[in-house]
Amino acid sequence: MPRRKEKRTHQDLSTIFDMIEYPDAFRITYLANAVVFPTYDTIKKDFGLIRAEYVLLACLSHYDVLTAQDVSRISGRPRNTVGRAVHRMLDEGYLARTPDAKDGRQATLRITPEGRALHEKIAAYLKERQENVLSALSAKERHTLSQLLKKAALDVASKDS
Amino acid sequence: MPRRKEKRTHQDLSTIFDMIEYPDAFRITYLANAVVFPTYDTIKKDFGLIRAEYVLLACLSHYDVLTAQDVSRISGRPRNTVGRAVHRMLDEGYLARTPDAKDGRQATLRITPEGRALHEKIAAYLKERQENVLSALSAKERHTLSQLLKKAALDVASKDS
DNA sequence: GCATTATTGTACCATTTGGAACAACTTGAA
DNA sequence: TTCAAGTTGTTCCAAATGGTACAATAATGC
Fold it and tell me: B1, CA 20 to 30 Å: which among A52, B61, B146, B156?
């Protein structure tokens, strides 16, 4: 175990990478914390969307029509969080809501052109960020990592129904 | 793009896995969201620690002596969050604080045997969870993934100094 | 030595978050 | 048909989070 000599920095993490009892989970978490959440901060600052709002936008940009409940189920976030995001995005004009004629409880949501344009800007930013994060890997390594992550993620997705 | 026919579920994510503009970042985020954060919820429920408190415990279980500021730098969390966790963990007896004789501003923190015992229990739980998440991969795939994640994570860690 | 600047830990506050309960509506069974 | 149970969207509330500012102490420059 490292003994204290001088100021600890973020770099000291490298020793934990090997000492930790659950190295893979830790590395995944580390990448997510170091990359994804600062990214959400940037999205909030530069694009004015909080996380729940961007999740909603991303869902609607990949599905044609969804209800708020669908978004909740797909994204795994609670209904009230999604509901708040829906109202905010309606006010901003990034999505449109149509009451369902057949079911008076629910309303169908669609993304507007403005919403799609916003999502494209944010997606481009996220992609750039992804490239930066994985720039240490070769093309072949990138491909391998991508496949392994997909395999693991799909397995997880299949487990919690 | 999928058109609406019936209820969307969490499983619909599998289509997004390929459609998304930043597939690797998305998969990493997905694994972190599906695995790590529910895990934090479990840690809170079963062990009574919030995330900041567990981060503190994990840091102190891998370094001999740290100040609150060290923990903040290593973990990347703000000082006030760490400070709150320190007081809570002191009250619970999971760590000990000694005022620094040389620097009146700071105090050195150490984990207590109780804290170490708690961390071992939580670490065992996290390890089990990790195994469950990666169970779809073969031993060889696990090893490859582990190496690639380490390479990417260390590169990221080296970038933000 | 003295004044300015930097650092540590803390307090305050606004924001985000999600659990629980609720009303409106639909579905299913008797 | 009618009533119980389930679903959708919303409101309310408590908890966690992190930015900002602050007091105390240390380090630096003159």
Answer: A52
